[in-house]
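Mods, move this if it's the wrong board.
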Amino acid sequence: MSYTIAIAGKGGTGKTTFTALLVKLLKEKKHGSILAVDADPNSNLDEALGIKAGNTVGGIINEIAAHPDKIPAGMSKDRFIEYEVQSAVIEGDGFDLLTMGRPEGPGCYCYVNNVLRNIVEKLMQEYSYIIIDNEAGFEHLARRTSRSADTLVVISDAAPAGLKAANRINELVNELQIKNKKRFLIINRYDNSLKTVEQKIESLKLDLDYIGNIPDDENLMQASLNGSSVISIKNDAPSIAALKKLIDKIL
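Not the wrong board. Structure tokens:
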């Protein structure tokens, strides 16, 4: 039985960095196998995890659309796509990665999302944890690639725009009846403005459980500047220490 965690948030709030931090802690806990899914067409989760993404779901769809003759005789198109997507899963150190990528051409997004959703549902049977880094904002949720998740974590900064986006994501999840057992708000790049943040959350009447924050961390900035991965950050870094206090709630 696998446990699925979907990460969502406005672009620029550190959603992908948070996803990589979560993968890092989960793999160090050694509670089971992990599949990280980069479901953001602007894919960069591989860089945060310190591995190079291989083929993507979008790339596979594009290739098959351009060269349908590559489908083996006697194999259906969907079955061939499933085989190719499973082959595109990259093995990391203590986790695997599946990257969605960006399809080309009009009208193919929905098909790609349907393929990804169906493949993820099958892959879920093979992993203990599925961590999905959703597209920035909420169009991805609107396409219902993440129809359900045990936990939805919405990442925001303390700025009003970020919190309002978190509120809209939450409203959309309710409208689409996307199923979650838990739904949390985490403030990223926290800067000692806790009282102000709590007042903003209360004024917006967010139907999200605010469970804590991840502080501004020089280690993350240096990793970005040096081109190194989040995985390489030492466990005494403030961001790691903060997430360790939250991870049991997320799970």
